[in-house]
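A protein record in our archive is deliberately plain, so that people and models can read it alike. The record that follows is passed on verbatim for readers who wish to inspect the format.
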Amino acid sequence: MFSASLPIYRIAGVREIEGKLIPSARPSLMERAGRAAAEDAVHLIMDRPGPILIACGPGNNGGDGFVMARQLRQAGREVQVAFAGSAQALPADAAKAHADYTAAGGNVVSDLPAAPAHGWALVVDALFGIGLKRAIEGRYAGWIQTLNAQPAPRLALDVPSGLDADTGQPYGTTFRATHTTTFIALKPGLLTNDGPDYCGEIKVQRLDIDAPAWLAAAGQAITPALFRDQLQPRPRNSHKGLYGDAGILGGNAGMVGAALLAGRAAFWLGTGRVFIGLLDANGPAVDFAHPELMLRRAAHLPERLSALAIGPGLGTETGSAALLRTALERDIPLVLDADALNLIGADRELQAILASRAAPSILTPHPAEAARMLGVSTAAVQADRLQAALDIAQRHRALAVLKGCGSIIATADGRWFINASGHPGMASAGMGDVLTGLVVGLLAQGWPAERALIAAVHLHGAAADRLAREGIGPIGLSASETIDAARGVFNGWLIEAQQGSPRDKGHEARHLTARNGP
């Protein structure tokens, strides 16, 4: 579980690495990629009989497919290759791969063959690679529709054809893979937006290339390795004062539950004391389910707090804006969520105060809140989630997490992280409030802001994953249930970090692996 995190590169970065390596690479990168893909295919269908269908396109992705086909034939598998283009029009490396395949006795047909009586053992998408920026039409669109209808495993090479490797946006007809073998390093579009729905299980074939040695990676996939150094045992001689005082400010009329969820999450993660300041004048004076929490009126939160979260159930009335301004002026780590973000998006003076803060600020928008902060549509945010997260972080000189499928954490200096833990059952009320509580709880305990946010986002999803494995969800999972699960996962991490032996492989080990090619 504590293996190093995986670098992520946008298309331009991958192209830069390839450009540095292609002139001198022996064997060629295409030969390495095709071999690696063939190796993955063999492992994927080792006991599955029948022929393999590889659909090759008119560029280098098709060349990878020709190398793969040759390697699989040499391994004794029956292969059928469909290629509608002209061999003479292929790029040089792809043309060589085509010639080597046919010289080895391989056949090529110009249209997709009918499926055999017992079906294909595997269908492979080697049509278009990471550079595609347009909708696939005509013959190739029809091919993809046919491939998607096959009941066999469906393997994409590098990226499913039709999917933007930078953004995770599908361009019309898109290959829907059960497995994706991607080359050199991860790309952001595989991990966020619609990418996970089209990629299936992802394997990284590094092709014996240490990508960061050629180009520093601005992005990383989140694993607990990024915050392992914070997972330290507590001294036996402990008291609650060692573990901070967290404040939660929100809970307006009809929304008290949001503040309580955040407070419970912070307390369950080990915060020494949690104070909840409620705006609802008729709100409770005690949380009878969890009387450990200390409830106050919003104006009566303690002055001395280790960290403060504002937003869960805050509302957008004038009084809320005044409380937000006061919070922004406090010299403590601050988590801004929900209506706090909506207020900032509508008020330039609040934006200026936020950008001038010296203490850490953490922003946790969902796509609609991010759109309000950037003055664009929600669709525009989703069209390039990574850029939207970076824009928010840089504009407000803060850490930001753009929540959603493949939550993206961005820093003000342009670095970014993508989280792969979690599942669709988390699309339910109160989940964002729990995340806010997890973040402020770690901040209150003295965690550095960046690692607190990374850990909380990953923990949030990992807790939901654990519950799903135990039969709780994904459908019908509640935010409250994730709080106790997060405590369990977090304590498991502490034990693993101390013992150095894995107990729970976790989400990232099941869905993201990195390997060197043959």
Q: What stands out?
A: The two ends are 24 Å apart (CA to CA). The chain has two domains: 6-221, 243-510.
